[in-house]
Amino acid sequence: MKAPIVAICVGCPSGVGPEVSVLAAARVSDARPLLVGDEAVIRRAATLRRVSQRRIVVVDRAGLSRLAPGTLGVWADSAKLPHPSAFGRPAKEDGAAQLAWIDQATDLVRDGLAQVLVTGPVSKLAIATSGAHGSVDFLGHTEHLARRLGAREVTMAFASAELVTALVTTHLSLASVPAAITPKEVARATFWLARLLRDLGRAKPRVAVAALNPHAGEGGLLGDEEQTRITPGIRLSRRRLLKADVEAEIVGPVGAETAFRLAANGAYDGVVAMYHDQATIPSKLLGFGEAVNVTLGLPIVRTSVDHGTAHDVAGTGRADARGMREAIALAVRLAR
């Protein structure tokens, strides 16, 4: 059986995405990396990180079967830029190119030409203001991929050796979060987190569902979302897991600071967070540079780094590729 092809979208061309993609791909031994991005941008990143240009092979559909471990494939049909963008200064055309690379890499996996999708960090603002088709509603990979692939529901999760967490809400203003927390959404995130933990080897995962309000609402004194939204969501998740024959222990609502502290100490295998920063702050404190963003519920496997474009670091040769290496490794593992 041939090693799987990993479609790697290199991300913002003026950020660190291309260099961490090239550097991580150069160290892959159990898969065949296929970089989706402008060839000149990829070759510039290879030069910056001293990866041999001889390893870079531009391939089209007919050439995919000849892609071998140890080579760095570049998808021949990747959208082109007029010239590589200056480090740290996204050009006007960068946004459209980034969105095109996401879509092209996604389609490679959807169409069976690659087995898993790994994405580099993009500039959401550059994409959203690019005027490209599908850019107006772009808030991030999670929502965009759900629309492109027709997924009924998706869940954003982060996984590292120290912590695994999934989100009920994602890219929303904090003021919009309470209304977006419903029993159905709590059940969705809890279900998919338990599924992920099972796929990672936990036979009966222990999942804590975090509260929204301080001290889990103090019985309604500090808010009633725990009673009216989260607790019913936990009951709904248990029924859904039972129907799917997934064994899991679901507890909560647990005060968020307690849930994450106990998970970090091994009492829980994962935590369901109510909003973006409730999940990402502990995730990045405990495993920054190694945590992997996973989109659950898609018909394909998709992972990503847990960091941004780092325009201030781009071009210095100091970008840390650990996150991309972990993202590739987890994608290959989940595909098996």
* Uncertain parts: none
Strand content: 15-25%
Mean pLDDT: 94
Note the run of SSEs as H and E. EHEHEEHEHHEEHHEHEHEHEEH
- Number of spatially distinct domains: 2
Number of helices: 11
What is the level 1 CATH name of the largest domain? Alpha Beta
The CATH architecture of the largest domain can be named as 3-Layer(aba) Sandwich
Structure in words:
By secondary structure, the protein is of the alpha/beta class. The chain has 11 helices and 12 strands. The protein has helices at 17-25, 39-48, 94-110, 124-128, 141-149, 177-180, 183-199, 225-243, 256-264, 276-287, 322-335; strands at residues 5-9, 32-36, 56-59, 72-75, 116-119, 155-159, 164-167, 206-210, 249-254, 270-273, 292-296, 302-305. Strands 3-4-2-1-5-12-11-6-7-10-8-9 form a 12-stranded mixed sheet, with helices on both faces. The protein is globular, with a radius of gyration of 20 Å. InterPro entries: PdxA_fam. It is an enzyme of class 1 (oxidoreductase).
Provide tags for this entry.
single chain, 336 residues, alpha/beta, Isopropylmalate Dehydrogenase, 2 domains, 12-stranded mixed sheet, 11 helices, 37% helix, globular
Give the SSE map.
Elements: E1 5-9, H1 17-25, E2 32-36, H2 39-48, E3 56-59, E4 72-75, H3 94-110, E5 116-119, H4 124-128, H5 141-149, E6 155-159, E7 164-167, H6 177-180, H7 183-199, E8 206-210, H8 225-243, E9 249-254, H9 256-264, E10 270-273, H10 276-287, E11 292-296, E12 302-305, H11 322-335
Parallel strand pairs: 1-2, 1-5, 2-4, 3-4, 5-12, 7-10, 8-9, 8-10
Antiparallel strand pairs: 6-7, 6-11, 11-12
Helix pairs in contact: 1-2, 1-11, 3-5, 7-8
Organism: Chondromyces crocatus
Protein name: 4-hydroxythreonine-4-phosphate dehydrogenase
Keywords: Metal-binding, NAD, Oxidoreductase
